[in-house]
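Note to self: user wants both folds in one dump. Writing first protein now.
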Amino acid sequence: MIRVLLADDQSLVRAGFKALLDAQADIAVAGEAADGEEAVRRARELRPDVVLMDIRMPVLDGLAATRRITGDAGLRDVRVVVLTTFELDEYVFEAIRAGASGFLVKDTEPDELLRAVRAVVAGDALLSPGVTRRLIAEFAARSKEPATADVLARLTDREREVMALVGIGLSNEEIARRLVVSPLTAKTHVSRTMVKLGARDRAQLVVLAYESGLVRPGWLG
């Protein structure tokens, strides 16, 4: 059973998500929070698999709450999915850098929301849609944080190649076809790269790919 914590200051939004999620055989809403401070507290109490986190909330915003959750060693297995009203929310990239596994627009289709919850639990990041890749590229290009090219020294040539392909949004299956290897081999390379770099998931791997200069925004086309 996938346990979800809903963090949104609008009770009607929470009610809608709860009705959808609780209707699934493999998903259950473990709790709710109306502000970021409560979201952090409830995450520590409930240890959910996924937190659906609104960005704009009172007391503590979703960005700060995401940082606290992903920065808590005791919550390392908790995945945060940021909810936003607009696709190009200026805080989304910062949330992903802070450790969020991806983002969803609030008016996303129900099937997409369910797929997203299951995907992050499986270790995938919500980085497939082109709009997400463009958003990450845009904010990576404007990032004021120093480059971390030295992290690449820990990787083999093949792992760097795989990391670059993850960075432009390819799935394990697409990477396998590009490199003419099996999907399992591609997945193994991705997993080893994440372990070496201490990345929580593919989302952080993408951020590192941009920040290190391994991938450049213009490559997205």
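First done. Writing the second protein, which came from a different request thread.
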Amino acid sequence: MSLAPRAVIVHRTTEYGELLARHGTHGQAAFFLSSRGRDIEEVRERHERTRGALAAVAAAVPLQWRQSRVERADLDRFLFGPEDVVVVVGQDGLVANAAKYLAGQPVIGIDTDPGRNPGVLVRHRARDAARLLPSATAERAAVDELTMVEAVTDDAQRLVALNEIYVGPPGHQTARYRLGPDDGRTAAEAQASSGVLVGTGTGSTGWLRSLWQQSGSGLTLPGPADQRLVWFVREAWPSPATGTSRVEGLLGRSEALRLTVESDRLVAFGDGMEADALELTWGQSVRVGVAGTALRLLV
């Protein structure tokens, strides 16, 4: 007997909630913000809109379904099931935060603050949930298959991201490593830099785009559904021992970069989730390429 679908509502603590947790009362939080030239009422109104959206989505879940909630900080400890329909209530970045823990489950993005969020990934309103939830379980649900990026270490640790994966120092030190195609033929180049960024077409609207613009790159950035990745080396440093001939490029579906660590410690993390990073030590290598799974985002 198959399980009924489960609606998993993903959210994050609002700024107002964080202020109350830090300062204890509304009055203390209001005083803190006013001392910095801000009005707490605007923050509280956004909090109430988020609460209203969460309540509307929860009420729209079909009666025969199960439902659960998970906060952003607990995503790495939450077990998603194959029968889940994931409803992300919040900002575009929250969809990316959840995506790395999924394995093909359909995702519905609910925008809690239209006009303030770009709405690239949170494409719907809370009032749409009653219509979207049943359709998400249909065999031919209308979804966009968004390409993801993955990093796999030589000891089989794996990291997946929707926007980009960063490999580099955990602080402001220089990262030293060898970088080259993972084709077994091309020699790797020794480099010293502030890290390497490999990302998708979805990520090309954010951090990757800023690097692309800053470097005056002639590469054509991929689109969200393109099965290609783009990569950049940040601030590569030329020296007698390190080169700068490989600082950007595109990776096709079957291509990958291989980075071999020549520092005491580097990290790899995806979509800004530094708390869920892979630790890389001297001599360890990591392969970065197109992930085998995609984000199934309802249109």
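Dump finished. Worth passing along: The longest helix spans residues 40-60.
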